[in-house]
Amino acid sequence: MPADYVDWLRREGRIVIVGASLAGLRAAETLRAEGFAGELTLIGDEPYEPYDRPPLSKSVLLGKASPHRTELPHRREIDAKWRLGVAATGLDLSAKRVKLADGDEVEYDRLLIATGVRARPWLKADEGRLDGVCLLRTRDDAADLYQRLKAGPRRVFVIGAGFAGSEVASACRETGIPVTVAERAGAPLVGALGGVIGAVAADLQTENGVDLRTHVTVTSLEGDSVGRVRAVHLSDESVVEADVVVVSLGSVRNTDWLTGSGLGAGPRGIACDAGCRAFDFRGIVTDDVFVAGDVARSPHALFGYQFLSLEHWGNAVAQAETAAHNMICHGADRRPHLWMPAFWSSMFGVNIKSVGVPPMGDQLMITQGALAERRFVGVYGYQGRVIAAVSFDNARWLEFYARQIERGAPFPVEFPTMDRRPEGRQPVAADFPDPSLPTHGPTVTLTGYSPADQQLVFHPARH
Amino acid sequence: MTQAPLFQQITDFANRANPYPLYEELRKNPVLHEEEGGPYVLSSYWDIEALLHDPRISSDAANLAAAGDDELSGPEATGLPPSFIRLDPPEHDRLRRIANSSFGPPHRPRRIENMRGELGEIVTGLIDGFGDARQIDLVDQFAYPFPVTVICRLLGVPREDEPRFRAWVDPIVAGLDPDARTSAESQRTAQEARLQLGMYLNGLVDQRAREPRDDMLSDLVNSHGPDGAMTTMEVLSTAVLLLIAGHETTVNLITNGMLTLLRHPEFLERLRNDPGLSVKIVEELLRYEPPVQIVPQRTCIADIEVRGVTIPKGSRIWLMLAAGNRDPERFQDPERFDPDREDIQHLGFGSGIHSCFGAPLARLETQIALSELARRLENPRLVADPPPYRQNAVLRGPRHLEIAFDGVRQAV
């Protein structure tokens, strides 16, 4: 009897969480808060208890916070068995077992996968191993990069002008380090926010002394005789000397360990239903495997039931709470994960925040403030409705726009707003790059309808 | 005889001691509009919270004047431009940013926290001053002088001038009460007082321009951040705002706080043993008995729909913060004072771009005030319940709060 099973599970079942970061921790706390009394195991490949990542690319690089002091506060006692410093390497769905790198196996009655993403490495492995070539995803990465910045490099080179790359550039400028940023697209942040907002970000960088190179790619990294990076070669045939290179090319979802498991897992994450239950590769929902956080991709009613994977801090928390709740309750009590996507960043003294899914938008209106002042709210429209909004130093208004998105409010935005300027009276093209020419990656991935999609297929330009 | 419309009962003094049954009545019709040309009265938590973030809702004194009932707010009438609380972006944002650069993060992140020791000393001195008395008026002997002393030091206004500026502050505060019957006259008096207070502050501002000190007036006069400097008139209206808002509301928060604790002695006793509980007590007070009960100075610049009701462009809007704070749609058991509740949220400081500028200071002042009163007063009790209230429905609080006690414990 399923009802008996849930009662038994709550009392003495075994729940395993793979991924000991934000989503894993919040899920564990929610399980206990909602009365799960059984055995709880958390598996993480890093040797650390869950820590917070947003400071790693901001205050840590500025020396304002120690990379070893960003532990996530615990909301409650979770009484879990921790398996830290050991990666999960495989999953046996029928035997309900997770295989670990140390050869051990852990059995579960219900499994939550929250393995997140890792930084995409430099495409040429030998160049990526040069001393001074850095990634920035983990606490160790941040500690290493901070030490290198503190040593006073002559120049830092950042490959990729997404949020993380731009934040690194910002930290360099704030500490007076010369920095060059290379971006394949025409401006920073274009993948996430489009070309109109990207142009504002570009001005922000150049005015703060960043040597910004757009429409270029890095062709090779050159090392010296002792294996230290010394120069970066670009597709426009220029060469930039640098002693630290930060590879900031977006992220790769940690699903490799699931290859062959039969789960609907691929480079875009693990497909799941709105209740966070994973799909298998046939598109059939499992009932004992759940997914949460950056690695999950789930259909969202507000965005045409597209499968969204969101690299958003708030999404990790909300999805973990929903997944944990659904793991230990009866079917009728389950709830959907319909979180309003929201993202923030700060760079060059500007607070940037978005709600909704900007890359879905094709048009943009500046409804408050002005681009030239770098204080504004921009609203994205998609097929006649409001789909997203972004603010520069204006975050307090976003709650309003989130409600407009929820209501499917019409676009163009017709009502007057305080501080509306002439430029915001007409929509303009939001100017996202053609998705068939990927940049290093937005923080939202739209993945079409097929849950078992195992390969990247870029949609052609809109319409 | 028919009863007065609900929105007029809000300003009726008869409801002052306990307006909450009236608020409950209001929430039955959360978008209340009773009279042609009258305000739209919003009383549910979620609606108020939404409108405080709605860019179609204006705080601009000029828009309010156009909506009627505020015809004296313009600069012509007073000679002082509106302070940022009565402005919309971008002007509001510019002035608030400049003011904030001498008050809070990122430029002065520890200014308030660094005052902790000083606040403790002022409180200790005031309580020591009760001497051998076995009964005090908490308002006159503690809840008023404490925040006045603090804001004077913070701004750099001589404390001994308090009797002078109090004569101007009282009519300004009275002018905030949206009582239709006295409105025009009290607003005229208020604007005159505001001008007088501005002229008084102008003397100090002149002096600080010549000899800057470590106070906010000096910072305001000499600000040269990315937003440039305030004009002298802007400095004056900002200083008037900070001086008034910096103490009038805190007086009520402290007084309401002590009144509430005396009505709930179990929390007073717990606070006596655990000053750390003051953090939660103050947050719950801001929900349960907020000093600012109503935001009556909003108007909409577009037609907006709330719960199926279209509020036409140009309408005046009253946001009933204190009613929203006890909205059962939002809070479990909202009529109960419970600092142990897990999710203490409130509209006590408003929300959105106009959310209380002085909130960090008001919180710290009240936490210290209440925990010290709890610790030092032996067996305190109310002499009269309810106490006599002030006229004002917006800034609501007791005019006097007589407290009897058996003695004063030594300061540590």
UniProtKB/TrEMBL annotation, chain A:
<dbReference type="InterPro" id="IPR036188">
    <property type="entry name" value="FAD/NAD-bd_sf"/>
</dbReference>
<dbReference type="GO" id="GO:0005737">
    <property type="term" value="C:cytoplasm"/>
</dbReference>
<dbReference type="InterPro" id="IPR050446">
    <property type="entry name" value="FAD-oxidoreductase/Apoptosis"/>
</dbReference>
<feature type="domain" description="FAD/NAD(P)-binding">
    <location>
        <begin position="14"/>
        <end position="320"/>
    </location>
</feature>
<feature type="domain" description="Reductase C-terminal">
    <location>
        <begin position="343"/>
        <end position="411"/>
    </location>
</feature>
<keyword id="KW-0285">Flavoprotein</keyword>
<dbReference type="Pfam" id="PF07992">
    <property type="entry name" value="Pyr_redox_2"/>
</dbReference>
<dbReference type="Pfam" id="PF14759">
    <property type="entry name" value="Reductase_C"/>
</dbReference>
<protein>
    <submittedName>
        <fullName>Ferredoxin reductase</fullName>
    </submittedName>
</protein>
<dbReference type="InterPro" id="IPR028202">
    <property type="entry name" value="Reductase_C"/>
</dbReference>
<dbReference type="InterPro" id="IPR023753">
    <property type="entry name" value="FAD/NAD-binding_dom"/>
</dbReference>
<feature type="region of interest" description="Disordered">
    <location>
        <begin position="414"/>
        <end position="448"/>
    </location>
</feature>
<dbReference type="InterPro" id="IPR016156">
    <property type="entry name" value="FAD/NAD-linked_Rdtase_dimer_sf"/>
</dbReference>
<keyword id="KW-0274">FAD</keyword>
<keyword id="KW-0560">Oxidoreductase</keyword>
<dbReference type="GO" id="GO:0016651">
    <property type="term" value="F:oxidoreductase activity, acting on NAD(P)H"/>
</dbReference>
TrEMBL record, chain B:
<dbReference type="InterPro" id="IPR017972">
    <property type="entry name" value="Cyt_P450_CS"/>
</dbReference>
<dbReference type="GO" id="GO:0005506">
    <property type="term" value="F:iron ion binding"/>
</dbReference>
<dbReference type="InterPro" id="IPR036396">
    <property type="entry name" value="Cyt_P450_sf"/>
</dbReference>
<keyword id="KW-0560">Oxidoreductase</keyword>
<keyword id="KW-0349">Heme</keyword>
<dbReference type="GO" id="GO:0020037">
    <property type="term" value="F:heme binding"/>
</dbReference>
<comment type="similarity">
    <text>Belongs to the cytochrome P450 family.</text>
</comment>
<protein>
    <submittedName>
        <fullName>Cytochrome P450</fullName>
    </submittedName>
</protein>
<keyword id="KW-0479">Metal-binding</keyword>
<keyword id="KW-0408">Iron</keyword>
<dbReference type="Pfam" id="PF00067">
    <property type="entry name" value="p450"/>
</dbReference>
<dbReference type="InterPro" id="IPR002397">
    <property type="entry name" value="Cyt_P450_B"/>
</dbReference>
<dbReference type="InterPro" id="IPR001128">
    <property type="entry name" value="Cyt_P450"/>
</dbReference>
<dbReference type="GO" id="GO:0004497">
    <property type="term" value="F:monooxygenase activity"/>
</dbReference>
<keyword id="KW-0503">Monooxygenase</keyword>
<dbReference type="GO" id="GO:0016705">
    <property type="term" value="F:oxidoreductase activity, acting on paired donors, with incorporation or reduction of molecular oxygen"/>
</dbReference>
